[in-house]
C-alpha cells in the first residue's frame, strides 16, 4: 500500500500547518446513560391517538453502559480500545469524538486541549469518527465520492500553489492510492443491492473520506471490518505513519486485531461490561494480565487475549491462581485502580501543563482560520466548521446530485418511459374531446387528471428523502456540507429532470386530448402543470425532512394527498364544500392549479349544446324554440365557458395568473421549510419507543445494542 499521500504532497507550508493542528484528548470518569427499554413496539391505531395526549409524559428507566473511563491520548499517539461486543467501545468513541446527541446523559470530563465539549463544537470538523457502517450513495463512482469529499475540504492556502481542481484531483488520487484502491476510481461504490466495488474496497472508501478531512483527532470504529489480514495491517501502518508525520491523535476500536496491527498502537484500553479494566502502554498489557494469573497461549493474538480474560469459557488461568484472579468486571476494575500502571498513567496525564494544552487549541484556531476561504471568513461566523462557502457547498452538492442521476440512469429512464406510457394510455382514453356538451364533464376530468397523476407520482419523494439521511448525517459530522445546502441542491437539480419528464408527458397528452391549438394556451398549461409538479416534489420532500421516521412521514403524506385531491375543486366544487373544511382549498396548491388550467382552457371557450343535453330531445323536438340546454351557464344552444366555470366551480376566468403566482410561491415556501428542517433532523437522537398502548404488539429485542 503506497504512502505517497503522507509524504509527496507535503511542502514546507503543509508540514507547518499539520504541526499546528494538534490536539490532546483527555477523559476522566466518563460514564454514559441511555434509556433502558428492552423492547420495541409496533404502532397501532390506538397508539397514534393516545400518543397525542401522552406526548412528553413517558418515563423510562436508565441504564449505565459506561462508567469511570479515564485516559489521555496526546498528539503522535495511537490508542486501541478493545472489548467484547456490547462492552461500550463504540459508545466511548462517539463521546470522545464529541458526538453525544444519541445518549441521554454523558457523565465525567472530556477535554480537547484545555477546552470542554461545548467549546470544542466550534472545531467539530477536527474531531472526526469513521463509523462501522459504510454509508455512501451507491450509484456514485469512487472518484466522484472522493471528489465531493475533497472539494468540501479545499483550504485557502494550498500546497505547491495548486488550483482548486488540481488540488481535488491530486489529493483524491493520492488518498485512494495510499489505501490501495486507486484502480477502482471508475467503479461505482455500490451497496448490498447495487453491484459495485467489493466490501473491503467499500470500507476503504469510507476510510478515504475520513482521511480527506485532515483532522487532528480521528476515531476509527472497527474500520478493518471486511478487510483481509494484509490490507488491515496496511491500514494500521498508514495510520501509524500519519500519526508520526502529522502528529495526529488516533483512537481506534478493532475487533480481532492481529499482533501486527496491535504493535502499531502506543496504548491500549480494555473494556468489560462498560468498565475500564486496563489502560496503559500496549507493550505492557499482556504482562499485566499474566501477572494477574492469566495465561496467554503461544502465538495467540494479544488483543484477543485481553478481551478473553473476563470470559469464563475462553480464559486460561495459570495453575495456583484460580482463587485469586478477578471474577467480575467490577473486580477487574478495582484490581486495575490499585495497580502501579493506573498510578503511573494518572501522573503522566497530570504532567501535561495547561499552557501546552492551551497552545494546542490556539494553534488549531489559527490553522482553522487560515484554511477557510475568504468568502467563508467574511460571511460566516468565526466558529463555523466549514471550509467552503454555502454557495460553494450548494454547487458541489448539485454536481453530486447530477452524478447520482446519471449513475442511476436506468431507473430514471424507466421513469421517462412510464411517463410516455401514461401519456399514451390516458390520452387515448380521452382522445380528441369534442367542443360540445358531450364533453362538458370530461374536459374538467382531463384537466384534473395530470394534477392527480403527478401528485401520486411524487409521493415517492417522501421515501426518497430517507434514503440518504444517514449519509447526510455522516457528512454533517465530517463538516463537508450543510444539510441545507444539500436540500437546496436537490431543488435545483430536480428542475431539469422534472421539465424533461413532464414535457414528454404533456406534449403527447395535450394534443391527444384535443385542446386548442394555441401557443399561449399550450405554454400556460405546460407552465402551470410543471410548477405544480415541482410543488408536489418539494412538498413531499419537506414532509420527509420534518419527520424522524418513515412510518410517520408516510401517514402524513397519505393524509395530505387525500385532502389535496378531495378539496382541489373537482370532486367537490368550492361552493359545495362544508364550511368547516373549505379552508383546505385556500391552502391547497392543487386547488389553485386546477382553477388556473380550467380558467385558461375553458374561460373563453364556446361549446355547442347537443343531445342529450337538450330537454326535450328525440325526433320531433328539433325546434330550438321549444327546448333548452340543461348545462349550467348555457344560453340557447351555446354554452359560455366563463359562465359555466363561474356557476359550476366558482372559478373566475380572469384569475389565471393570480393562481399561477400562488402556485409558484408554494415550492419556494416548501424549499425554505426544508432548509430549516434538514439541519434539525440530521442528527442522531435517542429512540424512545411508545410504551403507553396496552394493545400494542411487543417485539422483544435485545436491549444490549450498544457496542
From TrEMBL:
<keyword id="KW-0812">Transmembrane</keyword>
<feature type="transmembrane region" description="Helical">
    <location>
        <begin position="552"/>
        <end position="572"/>
    </location>
</feature>
<dbReference type="InterPro" id="IPR027417">
    <property type="entry name" value="P-loop_NTPase"/>
</dbReference>
<feature type="transmembrane region" description="Helical">
    <location>
        <begin position="522"/>
        <end position="540"/>
    </location>
</feature>
<keyword id="KW-0472">Membrane</keyword>
<feature type="domain" description="ABC transporter">
    <location>
        <begin position="47"/>
        <end position="298"/>
    </location>
</feature>
<dbReference type="GO" id="GO:0140359">
    <property type="term" value="F:ABC-type transporter activity"/>
</dbReference>
<feature type="transmembrane region" description="Helical">
    <location>
        <begin position="486"/>
        <end position="510"/>
    </location>
</feature>
<dbReference type="Pfam" id="PF06422">
    <property type="entry name" value="PDR_CDR"/>
</dbReference>
<dbReference type="Pfam" id="PF01061">
    <property type="entry name" value="ABC2_membrane"/>
</dbReference>
<dbReference type="GO" id="GO:0016020">
    <property type="term" value="C:membrane"/>
</dbReference>
<dbReference type="InterPro" id="IPR013525">
    <property type="entry name" value="ABC2_TM"/>
</dbReference>
<dbReference type="InterPro" id="IPR003439">
    <property type="entry name" value="ABC_transporter-like_ATP-bd"/>
</dbReference>
<protein>
    <recommendedName>
        <fullName>ABC transporter domain-containing protein</fullName>
    </recommendedName>
</protein>
<dbReference type="InterPro" id="IPR010929">
    <property type="entry name" value="PDR_CDR_ABC"/>
</dbReference>
<comment type="similarity">
    <text>Belongs to the ABC transporter superfamily. ABCG family. PDR (TC 3.A.1.205) subfamily.</text>
</comment>
<dbReference type="InterPro" id="IPR034001">
    <property type="entry name" value="ABCG_PDR_1"/>
</dbReference>
<dbReference type="GO" id="GO:0005524">
    <property type="term" value="F:ATP binding"/>
</dbReference>
<keyword id="KW-0813">Transport</keyword>
<dbReference type="Pfam" id="PF00005">
    <property type="entry name" value="ABC_tran"/>
</dbReference>
<dbReference type="GO" id="GO:0016887">
    <property type="term" value="F:ATP hydrolysis activity"/>
</dbReference>
<keyword id="KW-1133">Transmembrane helix</keyword>
<dbReference type="InterPro" id="IPR017871">
    <property type="entry name" value="ABC_transporter-like_CS"/>
</dbReference>
